[in-house]
Batch of 2 targets.
Target 1
Amino acid sequence: MVPRDELDDIHEHTKLRRFVLVALGAVIAISLGIVVLRPAEEKRGTEGKAPAMSLAILGEEERLSDADLRGTPVVLNLWASWCDPCRREARVFEAAHQKYGDRIRFIGVDVRDTVEAAQAFIEEFGVTYTNVFDDGHRFADALGYAGLPQTYFLDDEWNFVATADQVLGELNEADLEAGIEALLEAD
């Protein structure tokens, strides 16, 4: 038998526990509501013109600038030799370059890498489109990149194409072609 005064203590403890659980549930619900209902943040680096670019072409003594690319739509892919998704999509980008290279410039931008590792990557995957080296990742930072690989679609005036937008992560053949088709339609 439990004495009555102990039952009263148990009852008060249960009420306190119930209040704490309800209050905790309310805090969690409010926090989730704030996250879900707040307006989506604008994507960094995908409105208007892309930032100016002047980067060394890998394997050459020349530099490539955004001015050199005006007049042709551009698929701009940020990558690194040590990035597994970048390695998996390398052949996809090369195949797309072979298919669309007469209408679109494909530019690879090596980020957070060494020149030697980047050149070895290009040789390993038989990449024939132009690749540049972003020493210090200043251009990638100006783009507002969030990780690697990341792909941007730019019109012939170096503007981001909203219909294609940017893609963070590995692209398969179908997704890359969809972005290219949107880029060609916008041009």
Target 2
Amino acid sequence: MSNMTLAIPDDLKAKMSRFPEINWSEVARQAIVGKMQILDQMQRLLSNSSLIREDAVHYGREIKRRVSKKHRRA
């Protein structure tokens, strides 16, 4: 098994220290596994996509424009 070192802010470390019974390495490991599952699923879903980067940028900008317009009306 490989080791990994994480840097966390001092205030977070202080909060974590209030719960010494928690295995924080296991919490981090589970979070990484969960994130990898999401990324793997996204990769599988997008593997056959014909969407190119320029299209994605265009659609992203269009969505932002419409959301902004909707909130200005509200």
